[in-house]
Write a structure and sequence with these properties.
By secondary structure, this protein is α+β, with helices and mostly antiparallel strands. 62% of the residues lie in helices and 17% in strands. It is elongated and about 160 Å long.
Length: 480
């Protein structure tokens, strides 16, 4: 019994959550914030910004001294030089060589420091570029969101028109069956109902297609449950930017939009890279040092008692009985020998080296000079890109301003057109119902009203989006 009650409670709990999940709707703010974190272009630019940061970090640490350890070991066979005793040997032995080395650049005409500065500026530019990509994605998502809203509103207009046609057809059908109206009236209304039905179906298809486009911009799978919040378009906040002149909007964008700062940072980075390339034309002064030690498996040390002697190193003359010449160095002959410990050998053969090096470029296939010229041309190219960006932005702002102004005037005119068409349709409906207006004339008024409503929707959504574009250029992002 308890098990049945538990299963029933679980069943109720699961299905109680379904309506809540189904009613989970996405408003414009949620769509934009989600896209700024999950859009593919945004994530790719984030990776690029991290790569640039790594380049800067690596170039910064390249200015510090290097430190490397090495260890070599191997068997020697046949006649070879014993690096410990510096004698020839025909015995096989195992020899190791261990060491630590360091190198630091003392002066290279600020080439490394300029490279580090250039990479730092590039990293800052890529970080700002990520913000620019987010802004572009936000604007695109806002456009797609408004497109979904428009398609829904358009489908509602077609559905209302279809309901009107069906209701009028049913009423006319009764009058035709009663003999009050000719069959032609019913046929015309039935044909119009078919057209309205096809338009409504196409409008619903457009809704699904626009939702798929919005999901793609959000980087959501196509099969994700997704429902768009449908607030009245009048509730979307729109600043009255049209009170400002295009020149004022351009100046505001020039100081706030990230793309201008991106271009300036890249231009500064190009100048630093040019200075770094020029430094490669001159000598580089470095300081190096090394610690090393050797060991050999055949090295032995004496143990126990010993006697000292001076070994014979030669004779005076070549005849018999020629006097011998002894070494000035006294050696010891022990009663026993054992293998010298590894670390003792390293200590006995411990070497230290330090020195300066100067690298003077003389001729390297003109690689350095070609790189300098390339960097100089890159400065010119970045300057042209920055100037072109400003020209394009000014053109886009003036174009967006004029389009927004035209959309505002068109929207006002379309509202009046809907009011006039609604009034004409109401009059036509009353006249049709009393039989003084032909069906084809009533359908014409209905089509005029539907077209006016759709044109008003187009003008309204077009006006809202173009105002959002101006807000974007103003530098305040997408105001939600």
């Amino acid at each position: 019994m308890r098990k049945q009650v538990f299963c029933l409670a679980l069943f109720v709990a699961l299905f109680a959550n379904l309506p809540t999940q189904a009613q989970d709707k996405w408003d414009l703010r949620r769509c934009v914030e989600y896209a700024r974190e999950h859009n593919v272009q945004v994530r790719q630019q984030h990776i690029q910004a991290n790569l640039s940061q790594l380049d800067y970090k690596q170039s910064k640490f390249s200015q510090y001294p290097t430190l490397n350890g090495n260890y070599q070991g191997g068997w020697n066979f046949g006649r070879s030089v014993d690096q410990v005793n510096y004698t020839y040997s025909t015995q096989s032995f195992f020899q190791t060589n261990a060491g630590i080395s360091s190198n630091v650049t003392l002066f290279n005409w600020f080439s490394k420091s300029n490279t580090t500065a250039a990479n730092k500026l590039t990293a800052e530019a890529e970080a700002l570029q990520e913000e620019k990509v987010k802004n572009d994605v936000s604007l695109n998502v806002a456009n797609l969101y408004l497109q979904v809203m428009f398609n829904v509103q358009q489908a509602n207009v077609y559905e209302t028109r279809l309901n009107q046609s069906r209701a009028q057809f049913d009423n006319t059908r009764k009058q035709v069956d009663a003999g009050a109206l000719p069959e032609l009236n019913a046929a015309e209304l039935e044909a119009q109902a078919g057209v309205d039905s096809a338009n409504w179906i196409q409008a619903k298809t457009n809704i699904e297609l626009s939702i798929l486009q919005l999901k793609n911009a959000l980087n959501l799978p196509a099969d994700t449950l997704f429902q768009v919040e449908m607030p009245p378009v009048e509730s979307i906040p729109v600043d009255n930017i049209l009170e400002l002149s295009p020149a004022v909007i351009y100046e505001m964008g020039l100081n706030s939009l990230p793309q201008f700062r991106v271009n300036n940072l890249r231009l500064l980075a190009a100048e630093k890279n040019y200075k770094a390339a020029r430094g490669q034309l001159y000598p580089t002064v470095s300081l190096w040092g090394q610690l090393s030690g050797l060991s050999n498996s055949q090295v032995r040390e004496g143990i126990g008692n010993f006697i000292e002697y001076k070994p014979v190193i030669g004779t005076v003359g070549t005849g018999a009985g020629a006097p011998e010449v002894n070494s000035l160095m006294t050696q010891r002959l022990y009663s026993g020998y054992q293998r010298t410990p590894y670390f003792t050998q390293l200590n006995n053969n411990f070497g230290q080296n330090i020195g300066f090096s100067v690298n003077i470029p003389i001729f390297n296939g003109l690689a350095a000079r070609t790189n300098v010229e390339r960097r100089k041309l890159n400065i010119y190219n970045q300057q042209l890109l920055a100037d072109q960006e400003k020209l394009n932005m000014k053109r886009d702002i003036y174009d967006a301003y004029n389009q927004a102004l035209g959309a505002f005037e068109k929207y006002n005119a379309s509202v009046k057109s809907v009011q006039s068409a609604q009034k004409a349709f109401d009059y036509a409906t009353r006249r049709y119902e009393i039989g003084v207006l032909q069906t084809i004339q009533w359908l014409s008024n209905q089509n005029t009203l539907a077209e006016a409503k759709i044109n008003a929707l187009i003008a309204q959504f077009d006006y809202v989006f173009k105002m959002k574009v101006l807000e974007f250029y103003k530098g305040q992002g997408i105001k939600l």
